[in-house]
């Protein structure tokens, strides 16, 4: 099993990122379940806007797309901005929406993959953000396990970030572990028993 985290913070490296921190905690739980993991901060790459697998002229998405296609599990980690996923998360969703490649039985390649979401923010809205991202991922063809989101939101109108906490709250740690276990379980099931090909 292979997992890829696309971290959709607006800040390029080496700026600290709460989204990257929570994504790393999810990946650590996946590693305990014998999944090989990789994390990419999307802001470090020139991903063009549009709905295509390759927009040419230095577009970084084709290389990231190859990583998505090679993974069994995709984790999207995003902050909440103005009550929505980050603009980078939306851009990733738009680029994923271009997927049309199929296997030798006509099944879209994405249909065998499982997705999960990690959300951080200093305002309410984690459920709304995960609902938006869930719907997009499902429309694209990813499967979602029960409890496919982990999140942390701070008190409204305060300045504490997830990365500023002295320790991970128990509720977040428990949710992260459940996300990892359920996601890996579903990915392994789909690996052994893929969805049926489309009716001819």
TrEMBL record:
Pfam families: FMN_red. SUPFAM superfamilies: Flavoproteins. Residues 1-151 form the NADPH-dependent FMN reductase-like domain. One of its GO terms (molecular function) is oxidoreductase activity. InterPro entries: Flavoprotein-like_sf, FMN_Rdtase-like_dom. This is Flavodoxin family protein.
């Amino acid at each position: 099993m292979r997992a890829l985290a696309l971290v959709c913070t607006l800040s390029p490296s080496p700026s600290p990122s709460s989204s990257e921190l929570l994504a790393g905690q999810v990946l650590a739980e996946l590693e305990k379940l014998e999944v090989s993991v990789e994390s990419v901060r999307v802001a470090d790459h020139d991903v063009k806007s549009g709905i295509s697998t390759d927009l040419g002229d230095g577009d970084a998405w084709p290389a990231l797309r190859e990583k998505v296609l090679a993974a069994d599990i995709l984790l999207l980690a995003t902050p909440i901005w103005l009550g929505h996923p980050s603009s980078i998360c939306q851009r990733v969703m738009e680029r994923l929406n271009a997927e049309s490649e199929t296997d030798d039985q006509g099944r879209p390649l994405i249909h065998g993959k499982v997705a999960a979401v990690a959300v951080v923010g200093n305002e309410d809205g984690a459920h709304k953000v995960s609902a938006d991202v869930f719907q997009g991922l499902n429309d694209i063809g990813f499967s979602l396990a029960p409890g496919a989101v982990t999140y942390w939101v701070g008190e409204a109108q305060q300045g504490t970030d997830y990365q500023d906490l002295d320790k991970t709250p128990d509720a977040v740690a428990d949710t992260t572990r459940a996300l990892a276990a359920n996601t890996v379980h579903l990915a392994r099931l789909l690996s052994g028993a893929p969805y049926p090909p489309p009716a001819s």
